[in-house]
């Protein structure tokens, strides 16, 4: 899983934003809040939803990254990052298994509405 700011930067790239002030305006936050995000803060659910939609990323992934970004204790932050990494690995493995199962049944993952990466 990426760091929260990487999702914000991905959204900025998709939207064509060059400056943090443009991101702040899009998210309807102050430039001071955007600066805090750059330095390790997360965002509220409504802002996380905007980022998830813009990046076509599951909300759960954005929410988790946002929460991890807010943890100050380095040891606790490492634990949360490891949990997020494990969840990401499990999700990837599950997606691979489902893809193989559909192939064995002669179906394409696109036919089942599964996003291919």
- Principal-axes shape call: flat
Based on the structure given, which CATH architecture of the largest domain is correct?
Orthogonal Bundle
Largest sheet: none
Show unreliable segments.
none
Share of helical residues:
over 70%
The total of beta strands comes to 0
The CA-CA distance between the termini, in Å, is 15 Å
Structural class: mainly alpha
Instruction: State the domain count.
Output: 2
The number of distinct helices, counting runs of at least 4 residues, comes to: 6
Mean pLDDT: 85
| CATH hierarchy class name of the largest domain | Mainly Alpha
Radius of gyration based on Cα positions? 17 Å
Which topology of the largest domain does CATH recognise?
Answer: 434 Repressor (Amino-terminal Domain)
Order of helices and strands: HHHHHH
Q: β content, as a range?
A: under 5%
Describe what this molecule looks like in 3D:
- The structure is a single chain.
- With 117 residues, this protein is mostly helical.
- It folds into two domains: 1-70, 434 Repressor (Amino-terminal Domain) (Orthogonal Bundle), CATH 1.10.260; 72-117.
- Helix content is 70%, strand content 0%.
- The protein has helices at residues 4-15, 20-27, 31-38, 45-55, 59-70, 74-104.
- Helix 1 (4-15) packs across helix 4, helix 2 packs across helix 3 and helix 4 crosses helix 5 (59-70).
- The longest helix has 31 residues, at 74-104.
- It is flat and about 50 Å long.
- The mean pLDDT is 85.
């Amino acid at each position: 899983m990426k760091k929260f700011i990487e999702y914000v930067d991905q959204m900025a790239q998709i939207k064509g934003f060059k400056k943090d002030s443009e991101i702040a305006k899009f998210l309807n936050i102050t430039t001071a809040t955007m600066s805090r995000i750059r330095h390790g803060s997360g965002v509220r659910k409504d802002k996380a939803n905007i980022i998830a939609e813009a990046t076509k990323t599951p909300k759960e992934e954005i929410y988790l990254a946002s929460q991890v970004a807010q943890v100050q204790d380095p040891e606790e932050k490492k634990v949360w990052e490891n949990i997020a990494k494990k969840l990401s690995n499990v999700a990837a493995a599950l997606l691979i298994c489902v893809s193989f199962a559909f192939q064995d049944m002669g179906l394409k993952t696109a036919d089942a509405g599964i996003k291919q990466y």
